[in-house]
Amino acid sequence: MKKSDFFYHLPDDLIAQQPLPERCASRMLCLNRLTGELGDARFLNIVDRLTPDDLLVFNDTKVIPARLFAEKETGGRVEILIERSENERQVLAHVKASKSPKSGALLLLKNGVFFRVVDREGDLFRLRLEAENTVLQVLADIGHMPLPPYIHRADDASDLDRYQTVFACRAGAVAAPTAGLHFDEAVLLRLAEKGVQRTFVTLHVGSGTFRPVRVENLSEHTMHKEFFEVTKECVAAVRYTRARGGRVVAVGTTAVRALESASISGELQAGVGETDLFITPGYGFKSVDAMLTNFHLPESTLLMLVSAFAGYENVMAAYRHAITQRYRFFSYGDAMWLA
C-alpha cells in the first residue's frame, strides 16, 4: 500500500483544542473488525464491553514538560523540545531557531542556566546542561507541556494534569499515550469491581509520533525509535489471560507497539530496549486481541497500525462515519473501540 491510501480530509473544527471537562465524557466509535459493523457509544460503555476474563494493558509512561524557551548568546530566540535523555544532564533535542546553533554554542534558559550544544545527530542536537541541577529538575521548574502541533494554543496549567494519564508514573514521554486519557479513577474502580484485570507496559512516546511519512512507498519509511519495557509480570498476565480464553486489550497504539515489539520471536517475552517497529496492513498480530485508541492523523503511521489491526476498508469507512457524525479528533478527542 501507499502513503496516499491513508489520506482523508478532516475539517479543522473537528480537531479538539481542549479536553472535555471530564475525562470519561468522550464519545466512542465501536468497530467490529470482523464484520465492519459500526456503533456509536459513550466511552463509559467500555465497562460493559469488557469481562472479568479480559486484560487491559496500559502504558504507564509519564509526559515530561519537555518544551523550553531559551536565547542564544547573540540574543536570538530558541525553542527546545527534549526528545530523550542520555543521562541526567545530557539530552537529544529538537532546536528551533532562525539559524541553527553550532557546536559549542550556549543556549540561555529562563532560569539563568545554560545548555551547551555538543554536536548534532541528524535532526537532533545533543545538549549538555551546564548546571548542578538535572534536566528533569530544570523541566519541572520552567518546562512547558509539549502539546501536539495541531493544538493551536499555548499550554496552560490545566494541561499539566489533562495531558497526562491518571496512572502515569515513569517519566520520559514527550507525547501522551492518548487512549489512556479517557480513564479516570471512577472508571478504573468500576472496571476493578467488575473483575477486569489490568497490567502495564512502558513506551516513552517520542515527538516522532507526529512526524509525517515523507515517502509514498511505505517500505522506504524509517520509523523513529522509542524506549519500551515489557515486564515479567505483564507477560505472566497476558499468558494467564490467553490460557483462560480472555482477550488482551491494548489501551492505545503505544501499548500495541510495546507488546508486539516484545513478541518479535512469535511469543511475548519480557524485555527492555528500543523499538522502531512499523506496523502496516498485512502484519500478523501476536499479542493483541482488541484495542482502544483515539483518531489519528491522515497518512500517519498510527492510522496504518490501526488499519492493519481492524482492516483498511473497515477503518477508512469508520473515519468517514466519524467525520459525518462530528466526532472530536486527535489527542484531546474521542475514542475508538476495535474488537
TrEMBL record:
GO terms for cellular component: cytoplasm. SUPFAM superfamilies: QueA-like. It comes from the Bacteria. Its EC number is 2.4.99.17. It is an enzyme of class 2 (transferase). GO terms for biological process: tRNA queuosine(34) biosynthetic process. Signal peptide: none annotated. It is found in: Cytoplasm. It catalyses: 7-aminomethyl-7-carbaguanosine(34) in tRNA + S-adenosyl-L-methionine = epoxyqueuosine(34) in tRNA + adenine + L-methionine + 2 H(+). One of its GO terms (molecular function) is S-adenosylmethionine:tRNA ribosyltransferase-isomerase activity. Pathway: tRNA modification; tRNA-queuosine biosynthesis. Keywords: Cytoplasm, Isomerase, Queuosine biosynthesis, S-adenosyl-L-methionine, Transferase. InterPro entries: QueA (IPR003699), QueA_dom1 (IPR042118), QueA_dom2 (IPR042119), QueA_sf (IPR036100). Monomer. Belongs to the QueA family. HAMAP family: QueA. Transfers and isomerizes the ribose moiety from AdoMet to the 7-aminomethyl group of 7-deazaguanine (preQ1-tRNA) to give epoxyqueuosine (oQ-tRNA). This is S-adenosylmethionine:tRNA ribosyltransferase-isomerase. It comes from Methylomonas koyamae.
